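Exercise 7. Given the components listed, write out the predicted structure of the assembled complex. Treat all entries as one system.
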Amino acid sequence: MPGLSGDEELVPIDDKHHMTMTEILEKLSTCVEFGKIDIKSPYPPSMKDKEGAFELTQNALLAGISPGEILEGALIPAMSRVGQKFSRNEIFVPQMLMAAKAMSSSMIHLRPYYLSGHTKRKGTFIIGTVTGDLHDIGKNLVAMMIEGAGWEIIDLGVDVSADKFIQAAEKHPGAVIGLSALLTTTMENMRKTVSFLREKHSSIKILVGGAPVTAEFCEKIGADYYSPDPQGAVEFLKTIAQ
Ligand code: B1M
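Answer.
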């Protein structure tokens, strides 16, 4: 059978159709890569009237694929291909934006799985993408997983000034701060934000992350911890929570 990988079992995706888990993930990954949000979305024209990332994520979960497998096996590789194509000038900002929208429509279904339902919170985590930076998919993932680990999340959004971080820190004493940056140009704003926060609240805990950020950069700017992914951020917070 075409597209059937190994001895994988076929799972029903509706009354008439069956697919393997690998096929579902591949199809979802393609939707995100090409910005196919949902069945109603007319973009891209070649995928008109076909299921999009929204429906395929639902199918994947119903077929028993875990949210972690969906993220690692479909969504993150798709965004990585989008980034590579953008670097090679094969696609431009609008296509990148459609891919981001498709990924967000998929994340609508994943979010509930990461919520713990704990009533007693382990602490408060203030997160935002630094000034000048509009990327929020990675930040949202980090926020989602930390929320799932039992923390209250104050999400300040994107393009967040150092002042806004200070105001939030003052409103929530004892909160841990998380800064995200996706552009090499906004890493400088991350440095400034850390320095401003340290000036006002020297003992505040600051976690930094985002594709261009490194452990070396974290140390250089005086943040407390660098994590390349949400899991590392959760592990860091475990060392802080009582
Ligand atoms: Co932009 N973009 N983008 N973009 N974009 C990148 C980042 C880029 C690498 C693409 C490329 O050239 N290959 C490049 C940056 C180059 C550089 O500086 N080194 C780039 C560029 C250049 C730009 C513009 C300047 C393009 C232009 O206008 N000419 C522009 C800038 C706008 C701005 O911010 N001021 C721009 C715009 C956009 C869109 C708006 C179209 C869209 C973002 C939509 C949105 O976020 N709502 C977009 C997208 C989608 C991307 C790519 C393709 C995907 C980013 C993404 O969501 N990745 C990206 C290429 C790429 O990364 N492969 C690219 C998936 C996400 C799960 O990963 O965000 O890395 P990531 O998050 C990870 C980790 O980094 C970590 O955990 C997450 C989960 O694993 N993490 C943390 C993130 N934050 C953390 C915080 C933590 C801990 C871990 O603690 C607090």
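Discussion: The radius of gyration is 20 Å. The first strand starts at residue 10 and ends at 12.
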